[in-house]
Write a structure and sequence with these properties.
There is one protein chain. The chain has 2 domains: 8-149, PurM-like, N-terminal domain (60s Ribosomal Protein L30, Chain: A); 156-322, PurM-like C-terminal domain (Phosphoribosyl-aminoimidazole Synthetase, Chain A, domain 2). It is 31% helix and 27% strand. It is of the alpha+beta class.
Length: 333
């Protein structure tokens, strides 16, 4: 019979062990964490602290019978780290709150923690503590603490009329990966780049830090809910509008077929979520400093910031239309 861990102390010990010796070494430098009632964190001299948290819920963000446990572990941390990247910061440590049924405290938890540990190492963000409880559905909450050089944090509110609007990567890949996963359960390989983009997203930490340190970005956020939903938030925070040229939006590379019908790749790019790419604005005079690719990731100018109050899209035929938010919204029916 497979071992179970119904005792909370056993669960906490298992999670602490999964964090590995690297976490203990790092925590001695930046904080005091696992083992006390709370963690202590001290940012480096000349840095400000960044705090963010993110839910990752069964039935809403992942499906127990479709998403591999290690992917759930990886993605729950990657999502929160992406918020730190969007401000130009570096992640340092995180808190994990985990609710799960007794049936998933054995092999499922082992694989979940394996994915979480890989993400922790990749993003150099160590586990500092958290909480556990028992519940029928799996609920995960991750709180990440990061830091950014004082005065260099990039906010959503800094965009100005005339700035160029840019994105990293190709938009709609993660949404297409999710659709493929749903359509071909158990058939498609995790090595498929579209599937991997959905299961194992990589927040653009290095790019965000590079833009912030060089003072190139006036405003920035990550694309988690889709361009059509996230861009209006940046515009509202900055009190500006935007003109997006549909022909310039970087789409999924190859034409894709969903069943017998061709996919509308522009709609995927506009409304698909989970890309975790960066959306940022750059003064036009600095655009010669923005490379076409950053560490292999394409950077694309897709439009400009305007004095209006709402974003609009310029279609391929030159017509202008409002950019209607149709991305992810947990409260939309």
């Amino acid at each position: 019979m497979l071992p179970q861990y119904p005792d909370e102390n056993s669960l906490l010990k298992k999670i602490a062990q999964a964090a590995g010796p690297l976490a203990k070494k790092e925590l001695r430098i930046l904080a005091r964490g696992i083992g006390d009632d709370a963690a202590l964190f001290k940012p480096k001299p000349g840095h400000e602290m960044i705090l963010t948290c993110d839910w990752f819920l069964e039935g809403t963000h992942f499906l127990r019978d479709m998403h591999p446990p290690d992917a759930v572990g990886w993605k729950c941390l990657a999502r929160a780290v992406s918020d730190v990247a969007a401000m130009g910061g570096m992640p340092r440590c995180f808190l994990l709150s985990l609710a799960l049924p007794k049936s998933h405290t054995g092999p499922w938890l082992d694989r979940f923690l394996g994915g979480l540990r890989r993400a922790s190492r990749k993003f150099q963000c160590v586990l500092a503590g958290g909480d556990t409880t028992r519940r029928q559905e799996i609920l995960i909450n991750v709180t990440v603490t990061g830091e950014v050089c004082s005065g260099h944090a990039v906010l959503r509110s800094g965009a100005r009329a005339g700035d160029v609007l840019c994105v990293s990567g190709r938009l709609g890949e993660a949404e297409l990966g999710l659709q493929l996963l749903k359509q071909h359960r158990g058939i498609v390989s995790e090595k498929n780049p579209l599937i991997r983009k959905h299961l194992y997203p990589e927040p653009r930490v290095a790019l965000g830090e590079w833009l912030a340190k060089r003072g190139l970005a006036t405003a920035m956020m990550d694309l988690s809910d889709g361009l059509s939903s996230d861009l209006p938030r940046l515009c509202a925070a900055s009190g500006v509008g935007a003109r997006v040229e549909s022909a310039k939006i970087p789409l999924v590379k190859k034409p894709a077929v969903h069943g017998k019908q061709a996919l509308d790749l522009l709609q995927l790019a506009l409304h698909g979520g989970d890309d975790y790419e960066l959306l940022f604005t750059v003064p036009r005079r600095f655009m010669n400093r923005i490379p076409r690719r950053f560490r292999g990731i394409p950077l694309t100018a897709i439009g400009e910031i305007t004095r209006g109050q709402r974003p609009v899209m310029i279609r391929a035929d030159g017509r202008e239309q409002p950019l209607i938010p149709r991305g992810w919204d947990p409260f939309r029916g």
